[in-house]
């Protein structure tokens, strides 16, 4: 008799936000690590540098963002995502019922309901204002707006 090897558990993909969706940031820093796919597609294209351990160049030893007030918009959105089909069309819809959430985020399932959280609504309004300003300042694509680091 041989020992069967259990297949790796499939992680769920992005999910729509429902009335019961909850999220609370745990300050774990997990969101500041990149997969190889993300590195290949986005990091080099937009000037992101990654440390040897796969973390963002701005993640500090105490798992804090070293440029929190100047972080890219994609970081401000996490664990929320713009619908990839909309992004492919160059469209951005920041209404909570149109966004997706990463169920693998450490704080997923805990904390306040996303749809009722004023802090999340304020953050999305802030992202919208920043996006408008970046477009006015000459950013040419949605991806450039989302992934660009501010000028230091």
Could you name the key traits of this structure?
disordered N terminus, two-stranded antiparallel sheet, alpha+beta, single chain, 3-stranded antiparallel sheet, 152 residues
Description of the structure:
The chain has 152 residues and is an alpha+beta fold. The chain contains 5 helices and 5 strands; from the N terminus they run ββααβαββαα. The protein has helices at 36-43, 73-77, 84-88, 118-136, 142-147, and strands spanning 15-16, 22-23, 80-81, 100-101, 108-113. Strands 1-4-3 form a 3-stranded antiparallel sheet, with no helix packed on it. The protein has a two-stranded antiparallel ribbon with strand order 2-5. The longest helix is centred in the last third of the chain and has 19 residues, at 118-136. It is globular, with a radius of gyration of 17 Å. Mean pLDDT is 83; it is low at 1-8.
